[in-house]
Amino acid sequence: MQRKKLRMSDKKFYIAGMGMITALGPSVVTTVAAVRAGKSAYQESRYSMSSGKPVTMAEVPAELFENIELDLDEGEAFNEQYDHIIKMAVIAIAEACRNKPLQQPIPMVLAMPELELSPSIKHTLLTRNLANIYPDLINSQLTRACHSGRPAAVEAIEFAFQYLY
Q1: Above 80 in pLDDT, residue 100?
Q2: Of 83-87, 93-97, 98-102, minimum mean pLDDT range
Q3: Which residues, at least 6 apart from 26, have a Cβ–Cβ distance to it below 8 Å?
Q4: In sequence order, which ranges of the chain are alpha helices (DSSP H)?
Q5: Cα–Cα distance between 78 and 88 in angstroms, integer?
Q6: Predicted confidence (pLDDT) per residue in 105-125, tens digit
Q7: Could you tell me which of 115, 84, 106, 91 has the C-alpha nearest to residue 16?
């Protein structure tokens, strides 16, 4: 007998907490307020195309990363990008769990950049740091990663939905 794959539209579930950091703000509330107000964080960045033309993008403000001090395991693949990814994850996790005390580690699904030559090293580096920062909350054995780039968030939500059901 084949199990029918549940579609997200077939069932409903409760989201106990959310956390995010975007170019529009360091929380769900500030980001939603900025979107509703029609704000945009797009601007010329420090990056440029091969033609020399600056790349327009929305970046999380650099000062945010300077104000967060963490004792990070820099491992073998650490760079500024992963410093920022870890710090953004810490902010989002703190917001998501702020009002929900947890008694045991929870499954974590990460939306990650597309696969590179050493994706497991970077995934492991992120997971290891988050588990060190939140030892009672995050267990690397309960962590999964979706390495599909921009659509990874949608893939991660679908995975979590199927996991819960």
Answers
A1: no
A2: 98-102
A3: 64, 91
A4: 28-36, 62-66, 80-96, 119-133, 152-164
A5: 15
A6: 888 888 877 776 445 555 678
A7: 106
C-alpha span between 72 and 128 (Å, rounded): 9
Using pLDDT thresholds of 50, 70 and 90, give the confidence band for residue 44.
very high
Phi-psi region of 128 (alpha: psi -120 to 50; beta: other; left: phi over 0): alpha
Asked if residue 130 lies in contact with residue 145, where contact means CB atoms within 8 angstroms, the answer is no
- What angle in degrees, to the nearest 10, is found between the helix axes of 119-133 and 80-96? 40
β partners of residue 25: 22
∠ CA 78-79-81, rounded to 5°: 120
What are the residues whose beta carbons fall under 8 Å from the beta carbon of 91, sequence distance 6 or more?
19, 21, 26, 27, 64, 68
- For residue 9, the model assigns a pLDDT of 66
CB atoms within 10 A of CB 102: 12
